[in-house]
Design a protein that fits this description.
The protein is built from 4 helices and no strands. By secondary structure, the protein is an all-alpha fold. It has one domain. The protein starts with a helix and ends in a 5-residue tail after the last helix.
Length: about 110
């Protein structure tokens, strides 16, 4: 159960980070309203706060988070930008998830 909660927290953290960066992109590159910077700042603040909720705020946890972030970013590309991931995208994400699992569940010194 702890694993599911941690993975869920990783996904929510990744979404907060992606949305917090996507909104300024809309303003800068697509000419949308500068008011998008307000929710962007809130999402980035939520991202920073969510990082503090991870069970162990260490380099290992952040490295594992990176694998989930890449996966969520690929889903964002598909869902929001309507760009279907390629087979090499899926292979790359698979390597990231395997790497994340190795980091999270690998042997630890006693």
């Amino acid at each position: 159960m702890e694993l599911i909660k941690t993975l869920g927290l990783f996904v929510v953290t990744a979404l907060a980070e992606i949305i917090g960066c996507y909104l300024p992109y809309l303003w800068l590159k697509q000419g949308r309203s500068a008011w998008l910077l307000v929710p962007a700042a809130l999402f980035l603040a939520a991202f920073a706060w969510l990082l503090t909720l991870h069970p162990q705020a260490t380099g290992r946890v952040y490295a594992a988070y990176g694998g989930i972030y890449i996966s969520v970013a690929l889903m964002w590309l598909w869902a929001v930008d309507s760009v279907k991931p390629t087979s090499t995208d899926w292979i790359g994400v698979s390597f990231c998830i395997v790497g994340m699992a190795i980091i999270m569940f690998g042997a630890r010194p006693s």
